[in-house]
């Protein structure tokens, strides 16, 4: 009888020990820290601040500028002469691609200023259209084209330092590279340089801001060119 009771007691202790052991194992698992993932990127694998785009990688303010003026609608919408195409080229090359500026291009070539314009840094160019040159008598224009010194002076009177947005033009008289002075009046879509109307302006090239104008500007004066002034 005693042996039977002892056997029953030992069996009961054995059965009680099994759940306790399992509970101990479960508790140990829950309390143990989870192993760190091995596939997480290390700090050196993550993008550092130096990988972020810098200000020089972003488009310049000039690139997003909108052309202004009543003649902007006549610009090609794509290809050579368009605003988008001009923005990728230096100013001398950009002007040459516009068929409305072929006379100006010939004048720039005759004066040997194409590379000078292309290598200039941040300038504003007032570009007379073919119609602007057509206001001059043919003999006057021919004489000007044949006089490199005078032609250079005339062309330099159409260039000022700095990339001028429309709002910058009317703050003070502008000093040209030729030493002349230009006053711009008006605002918005209605701008006048001396007596020359801006047809389409705030056009961006890779190194300049361009304003297409309807008259040739005279060195040392704030008026459009007349036959007598151009021939002198």
From TrEMBL:
SUPFAM superfamilies referenced in this protein's UniProt entry, alphabetically: FAS1 domain
Any Pfam family matching the protein: Fasciclin
Keywords from the named record: Signal
Domain of life from the UniProt record: Bacteria
Gene3D superfamilies reported for this sequence: FAS1 domain (2.30.180.10)
Keyword Cell cycle: no
Recorded GO CC terms: extracellular matrix; extracellular space
One Gene Ontology term from the biological process aspect of the record: extracellular matrix organization
Classification via InterPro entries: Adhesion/Biosynth-related, FAS1_dom_sf, FAS1_domain
One function term, GO molecular function aspect: cell adhesion molecule binding
Signal peptide residues on this chain, from the entry's feature table: 1-23
Comp. bias intervals (Low complexity): 41-58
Region entry Disordered, spans: 29-86
Name of this chain's protein: Uncaracterized surface protein containing fasciclin (FAS1) repeats
Species, as recorded: Streptosporangium subroseum
